[in-house]
Amino acid sequence: MSFYIQSVEIGGPRPFYLLGPCSLECESFVWEMARSIKAIAENLDVPLIFKASYDKANRTSVTSFRGPGVQEGCRILSEIGRELKLPVVTDVHTAQEAEIAAEYVDLLQVPAFLCRQTDLLEACAKSGRPVNIKKGQFLAPWDTVNIGEKMRAFGCDEFMMCERGTTFGYNNLVVDMRSLYWMKQEGFPVVFDATHAVQKPGGLGGTTGGDSELAPVLASAAMATGSIDGVFMEVHKDPSKALSDGPNQIPLHLLEGVLKRLQSIHQAVQS
After folding, report:
1. CA distance 55 to 59
2. In the prediction, which pLDDT does 70 show?
3. Is residue 269 in a domain?
């Protein structure tokens, strides 16, 4: 199964990349990140979908930064997409948000904790937009079959499944690379989320920890399986100052090297 989001082919012979900061911290920041990431992607001829979240609705602490909200966040993303000629994606958390966001963005994303919420899946499926569905940390890879059946029942064939790790004990995630193969065998495009896979949920007490240095390692391993169609990586110009998920984001200055490495691995696998 393959389809297009603007000029980016999903499920085709080339891997695509969902890149951008975790949250839409402010308008000037997200514009800066979009321009910087686009320049790197164009230099490497990497198919890019730009990502940022307007609301981090499942933060560990009630005092944590969340974002500007659906209306303002989607307005900013829409303007970025239009001016920079980039497809854009953001998370949605309710059926109502899916309807609003679909008017502004090119791809809707269902968060992992909400991947089985039937009303949300139905709203995304009927929005007319393709959908990236994060596999819940609590699901086996073959459980995504039921999610796919829901999407098809609601009339949507343009969706993909995204692996982001599985809960392993307390405050820890692991990635079973076999899951990428098993999900690919079900016939839908598969994305690997390299940065959320290295999270340590709640690992810092009031915030989430992570091992960002391992994100490129896991991305490389995922690419080497030959089973993924895309890579999701959150990128920040200074992760130490990020308002969410700093410990697992890729520093912007390292992004080009990471992408080159992934391109080389993909070429080796294809040959």
Report:
1. 10
2. 95
3. no
